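#onboarding

Welcome to the new folks! Below is a worked example of what a typical request in this channel looks like: someone posts a single protein sequence, and someone else replies with the predicted structure as tokens. Don't worry about understanding the tokens yet, we'll cover that in week two.

Example request:
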Amino acid sequence: MIAGRLRPYLFDGSTAILDRHPPSQIADLTHARSVRAPDQAVRPEIGQAMAMTAKQPPEDRLASWRQALSSINRDSAVLPILAIFTATRLAMLAIALIAATQIAVHEDVLHNGWSNLACRWDCIWYLSVAQKGYSPLAFEVDPNQTNFAFFPLYPLLVRWVTPLFAGDTMVAAIALSNACAFAALLYVFRYARMVGLDRGAALLAVALVCSLPQSFTLSVVLSEGLFLMLLAAATYHLRAGHYLAAGIAAALLSATRAPGILFVLLAGLWLVERVGFANLLRPWRNPELLVPLALAPLGLFAFWAYCFATTGDAFAQVSTARHGWDWAFSPPWINLPVMFHSGGIPLLVATSGLLALACSLLLLRMKLVPEFTYCACAIALVLSGEGTSSVFRYWLVLFPIWVAVARMLAGRPLTSALAFSVAGLANAVMVCAWTLKDVISL
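Example response:
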């Protein structure tokens, strides 16, 4: 009975310790266990502080806790990330304003004020869902286009936060996108640290995400910022063992954009790596492991259910994309030669996709097979779409790739400077194209 009660507190999990220590020492042992346990459940700085302060006088304990919290603050890098995010946003806004006032060819580039710069292309569809909800009625532009082509989470969140901005849907959408983008960068940093990058390399990954071509889409009225945040959150929490948080983020991810459902592959492969395939087939042993897999498709399933209830077609999103935007699935080994032969924007899409795929191979060097699989499948899915016209923003949100690239660039200042110069120049061109409503900025 005594051994059963003490078993959770014993270091080796056996009753042999009772034979080695007299009863007078059991209290000390159990106290030591209570001090050591937090080391495994919280950050190392906190665990070390708890261990160090266990037998310190009160005045020394306060100093130890201050040192631990200071260490955490230095590692979290909130201020440097905020500085990087703010500086890149201001730089892109300046470029957009110069393009709008100096080389604009459309009279309505700054129509309705500066916030109009954040609304191009798919923006009007997201705002229509946020303001009026889904409708099977087509827009006047094309009789086959409806807003069912766009996933619901982003416009739904815009609708929810609009009252906080005096009913201005545009401003609410811009604020939401930027808040999600900043939160995403925090997760990218923490993920980079988790997979072995030092603080400088992790900040380099953040800067790279903020500087890549079309990185301005993280701050405009599009779902990129939200998608990046949810993907980074789901991946980070999965690797941290926070299965419920990972599952919730994954469910929201699949309600944001179609590639979100591919998180099931990432989660499945990671769980196989961790517990083995045989143990994964015995869910009654560790049911919490399956929570991310079970929750991940729910966002997509909910959208399908809504489409079926309102239109009678569960796959209304696919149907309107096919008939309104001429999107059709074609295997990448068939579609890629067509894209290269077509030239123009399809050629740029194919080239940038293959470049992103080549960069994703760096994930294999880091032994991040689940992340590589997700990124490769997401790239293949986009390259399988006939009519795909977005040049780089679909690869932008595949943050594990850019974490791996940052790891390669770390410690190579000249190579880093060259990479950031090329990326920044390409991004500036894209900002101008977006401002002037050139189709290349889609």
